[in-house]
Amino acid sequence: MQLATTGLFRAHWTDDIHDEWIRNLKANRPDLSDAALARTRELMDRVVDDARVTGYESLIEGLDLPDPDDRHVLAAALRAGADAIVTFNLKDFPEAALAPYDVEAIHPDAFVSYQCDLAQATVCEAVRLIRGRLHDPPYDIDAYLTHLAASGYPATAETLRGWRNFLLRQAYPPCLRSTYEWASIDPIRTFGNVPGRFAPVCPGTPGTLPSDAGTPGPGDMAYAD
User: Fold this and answer.
1) Using CA atoms, how far apart are residues 133 and 211, in angstroms rounded to an integer?
2) Rounded Cα distance, 113 and 158, in Å
3) Ramachandran angles phi, psi of 86, nearest 5°
4) What span, in angstroms and rounded, lies between the C-alpha atoms of 116 and 113?
5) CB atoms within 10 A of CB 26
6) What is the pTM of this model?
7) Which of 10, 198, 206, 214 can bridge 202 by disulfide, Cβ–Cβ 3.0-4.6 Å?
8) Chain segment 60-97, per-residue pLDDT in tens
9) What's the confidence (pLDDT) of residue 182?
């Protein structure tokens, strides 16, 4: 979600996607309150322009995926005009099922690595902001990258290790940051590989997400140039 606020792409999701990540997260993090999760949901919708996709429901019945319960993700991606669905569960979105719609499934590690190739400075700043909000416990850069790799992003972590000196630099002062910045916790540490859904599509709005509930963990996502 931090990268979704940088302008590299625009994030989109639906109310069904919100319900799904909240349900999965509560199963893994029963300590998080309903109020905190609802606040995160509200602020997610606020921080990214035109994030919520609507009017996709009529497309669901005409789609065919191995798990019928995943069809709403593809339907939302099609309505949003996305080029790809980014998911850890690549088997749930096979190439043959997506090809007729010119949509592909991409692993989140490959997706973030692609953002690294596109915009080193932007990604480094996003990582500095995320790590700078970790206080309980704090993570030094090496521990953070090790955790990132263990959370399913080994290629991204390896790329970032090559940028270690940049990652240790001071983040931009508050006066240069978005007005949508809140104290926050690291979404990967908070959510792990909780199945969730979110679907980005083109340049978005700067900002960061709040942290009493954090941001949804790695899940299904769609991306377009």
Assistant:
1) 9
2) 10
3) -100, 120
4) 5
5) 15
6) 0.71
7) 10
8) 999 999 999 999 999 999 999 989 888 888 999 999 99
9) 32
Residues 6+ positions from 205 with CB-CB distance below 8 Å? 5, 7, 47, 48, 49, 178, 180
Q: Give every CB contact of residue 175 below 8 A, 6+ residues apart in sequence.
A: none
Structure tokens at 106: 């991409």
Distance of alpha carbon 50 from alpha carbon 30, whole angstroms: 30
Determine the pLDDT at residue 170.
53
Alpha carbons within 13 angstroms on the beta-carbon side of residue 215 total: 27
Scanning the structure block, which residue is given the tokens 């940028």?
Answer: 163
What is the residue type of 27? A
Residues shown for the chain: 225
pLDDT attached to residue 168: 81
Work out the angle at residue 51's Cα, subtended by the Cα atoms of residues 45 and 56, and round it to the nearest 5 degrees. 120
pLDDT at 209: 37
Residue 26 is predicted with a pLDDT of 94
Residue spans of the chain under pLDDT 70: 169-225
Sequence-ordered alpha helix ranges (H) in the chain: 15-28, 34-47, 57-60, 71-80, 95-98, 108-118, 120-132, 141-150, 154-161, 164-167, 187-191
Which residue, 207, 208, 9, is CA-closest to 106? Answer: 9
